[in-house]
Amino acid sequence: MTIAEIKQTTQGKMDQSIVAFKNNLTKIRTGRANPALLDTIHVEYYGNHVPLSQVANVSLIDARTISVQPWEKGMGAKIEKAIRESELGLNPASMGDLIRVPMPMMSEERRKEMTKIVRQEGESAKVAIRNLRRDANEAVKKLVKDKEASEDDQKRAEAEVQKVTDRHISEIDALVAAKEQDILAV
């Protein structure tokens, strides 16, 4: 593996970490409704547990209400039960075939808890980025040890990997700040 390949794979893995972090942020509840909030819910369907999105259409009615439209008649009660029993604190209401999931107002205390969760997720993402930096630096050091690269190449590569790391960490910080702003907005 060359230094250029090490830098390229590290950049790709860091980008994947950012994508995973963004995906985790969508699951954290704010005051507004978001269909992605229900992505973690699984429903029993003919003996198997499948994601909600595979048995129903999930969409927004308005800024504070999610609608869930089951594709089969008998699934409404199971979907409603799965949403109610999830750890999201939601209380769905059936209206014929349609299930409405209103977003409850969040208390100030709950908003602060959510910002702490966002910060923890951000810190986890930063740790993942730093681990990737460490792995890249170790791979470059191995090349130098095996006499496949010079020490000057090592210094340059480490500096470039550090720049990429700093850029990704600042992106995580920006995402955390934006999510906190979203949560704290009443």
UniProtKB/TrEMBL annotation:
InterPro entries according to UniProt: Ribosome_recyc_fac, Ribosome_recyc_fac_dom, RRF_sf
Domain Ribosome recycling factor as annotated: residue spans: 21-184
Location of the protein in the cell: Cytoplasm
Start and end residues of each stretch annotated as Disordered: 143-162
Matches recorded under Pfam families: RRF (PF01765)
Keywords: Cytoplasm, Protein biosynthesis
Major localisation: cytoplasm
Keyword Cytoplasm included in the entry's annotation: yes
Role this protein plays: Responsible for the release of ribosomes from messenger RNA at the termination of protein biosynthesis. May increase the efficiency of translation by recycling ribosomes from one round of translation to another.
HAMAP family according to UniProt: RRF (MF_00040)
Family statement: Belongs to the RRF family.
Protein name: Ribosome-recycling factor
Protein source organism: Ottowia thiooxydans
Gene coding for it: frr
